[in-house]
């Protein structure tokens, strides 16, 4: 089972990655913008289901592959660290793509598929979740329960963010500053992943 520090590390990784803008979060914000918080609530279940399936499949695959290729987990951590560092640099340089009211509202099926194919699932399975989560049921259940408990409020926050944009309450928002702050968080996280892979 997890130690308190391992749960804290898992939770921190989950929060950082789930907060990062991406296809699923953009769809959630767009739904909040177009149809409000209450009508968008079912999309949280679609996101959770998509991640549970995708993380579980990737986790089992990587656990089996690690037996034949023992260096694979370390390589994945380094690759994930480089990918997140690239995202951080790209996010710093590019403008934030905020949803607008002309985007079509996403249904549960669309959000489920977008989440199922989201590269973040591989990141969760290969670097953030402990390898033991895909070998022992109690550890798997605890990791997934932690993930679900963190995903729900973050998904709601993205929906509420979209709804606030639609209501005009965020006119003061500076997308460039928001993006640069997120890129710094990603950069720090990428360094911690690289450190854990090399030590």
From TrEMBL:
Its main location: membrane. Keywords: Cell membrane, Membrane, Transmembrane, Transmembrane helix. It comes from Paraburkholderia rhynchosiae. InterPro entries: LeuE-type. This is Multidrug transporter MatE. The keyword Cell membrane applies. The keyword Lipid biosynthesis does not apply. It is a multi-pass membrane protein.
């Amino acid at each position: 089972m997890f130690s308190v520090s391992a749960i804290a590390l898992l939770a921190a990784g989950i929060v950082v990655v789930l907060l990062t803008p991406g296809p699923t979060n953009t769809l959630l914000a767009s739904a909040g913008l177009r149809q409000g918080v209450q009508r968008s609530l079912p999309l949280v279940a679609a996101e959770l289901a998509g991640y549970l399936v995708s993380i579980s499949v990737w986790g089992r695959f990587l656990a089996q592959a690690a037996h034949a290729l023992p260096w694979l987990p370390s390589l994945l951590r380094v690759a994930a660290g480089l990918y997140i560092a690239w995202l951080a640099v790209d996010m710093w340089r590019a403008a934030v793509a905020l949803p607008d009211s002309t985007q079509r509202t996403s249904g549960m099926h669309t959000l489920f598929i977008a989440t199922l194919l989201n590269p973040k699932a591989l990141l969760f399975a290969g670097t953030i979740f402990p390898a033991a989560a895909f070998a022992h049921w109690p550890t798997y259940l605890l990791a997934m329960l932690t993930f679900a408990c963190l995903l729900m409020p973050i998904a709601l926050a993205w929906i509420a963010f979209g709804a606030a944009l639609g209501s005009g309450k965020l006119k003061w928002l500076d997308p460039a500053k928001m993006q640069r702050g997120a890129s710094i968080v990603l950069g720090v996280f990428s360094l911690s992943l690289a450190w854990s892979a090399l030590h």
